[in-house]
């Protein structure tokens, strides 16, 4: 079923959302959370996943129109009207219950509009600017779900989310290139002597592994800074955020274990490592 068909099909949209969520490296809903939190997080996930799918999977000529369609329905929700799209009807309950502001939801739409126009990033700073739209809003919404959105927590959450986005870019180098995008900074690729042909190799060339390792190191630094967020949260918010941080740490460990061969036999994060990092992160003060 196409993305445009899924927009209107409530059963298919929810099934797809749950299937995709179960395969994510950084799942947004854990069995440890109460049902009310799981439902809100899955509603947020469903919206973010659908917006991403429009930007990646819909026919190129339809993407802008579909993103506009979603934004129009988002406008209806914030105007107090009934949403037309199933995913927005689900999200509207979360928006109301958790008092989620419109800005982070609109930023996710803007990130995917940028993806239709910008395929490469000259510097790491440019990539950070993109992550402020594609990743950071998700963490801000999660903080609102738990009623924990304060300026100091948002600042740390942004670091965690940017780190997770960069890690995902490292994992998806080949897939992103097949979709016509390169998120590895161009100046780093030049510095390591990489060419675009390196991105299509069956096994990651050594020079490209160096670029990926550099991004992973930067992500690790951001994640280490942002992990202080767990010490400023309590209860289920702390459990959830520690899970996101642990997911990032486990993914970084997997990249290192696989010698940063992201084009060949990439190593998935190990569940045991995830649980160990989760426990360690929960113990941080």
UniProtKB/TrEMBL annotation:
GO molecular function: geranylgeranyl diphosphate synthase activity; squalene synthase [NAD(P)H] activity
Catalytic class of the enzyme: transferase
Keywords recorded for this protein, A-Z: Transferase
Stated name of the protein: Squalene synthase HpnC
GO biological process, one term: terpenoid biosynthetic process
Alphabetical list of InterPro entries matching this protein: HSQ_synthase_HpnC, Isoprenoid_synthase_dom_sf, Squ/phyt_synthse, Trans_IPPS_bact-type, Trans_IPPS_HH
EC numbers for this chain: 2.5.1.21
SUPFAM superfamilies assigned: Terpenoid synthases
């Amino acid at each position: 079923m196409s993305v445009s068909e899924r927009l209107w099909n409530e059963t298919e949209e929810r099934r797809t959302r749950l299937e995709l969520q179960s395969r994510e490296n950084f799942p947004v809903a854990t069995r440890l959370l109460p049902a009310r939190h799981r439902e809100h997080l899955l509603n947020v996930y469903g919206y973010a996943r659908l917006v991403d799918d429009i930007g990646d999977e819909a026919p190129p000529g339809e993407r802008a129109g579909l993103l506009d369609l979603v934004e129009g329905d988002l406008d209806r929700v914030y105007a107090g009207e009934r949403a037309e799209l199933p995913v927005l009807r689900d999200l509207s309950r979360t928006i109301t219950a958790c008092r989620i502001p419109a800005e982070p939801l609109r930023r996710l739409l803007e990130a995917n509009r940028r993806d239709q126009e910008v395929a490469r990033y000259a510097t790491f700073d440019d990539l950070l600017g993109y992550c402020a739209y594609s990743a950071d809003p998700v963490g801000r919404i999660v903080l609102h779900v738990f009623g924990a959105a304060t300026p100091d927590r948002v600042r740390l959450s942004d670091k965690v989310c940017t780190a997770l986005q960069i890690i995902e870019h490292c994992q998806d180098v080949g897939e992103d290139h097949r979709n016509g995008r390169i998120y590895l900074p161009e100046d780093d690729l030049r510095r390591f002597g990489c060419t675009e042909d390196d991105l299509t190799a069956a096994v990651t060339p050594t020079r490209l592994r160096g670029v990926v390792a550099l991004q992973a190191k930067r992500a690790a630094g951001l994640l280490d800074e942002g992990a202080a967020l767990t010490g400023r949260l309590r209860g289920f918010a702390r459990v959830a955020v520690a899970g996101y941080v642990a997911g990032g740490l486990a993914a970084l460990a997997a990249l290192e274990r696989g010698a940063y061969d992201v084009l060949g036999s990439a190593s998935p994060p190990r569940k045991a490592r995830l649980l160990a990092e989760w426990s360690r992160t929960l113990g941080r003060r």
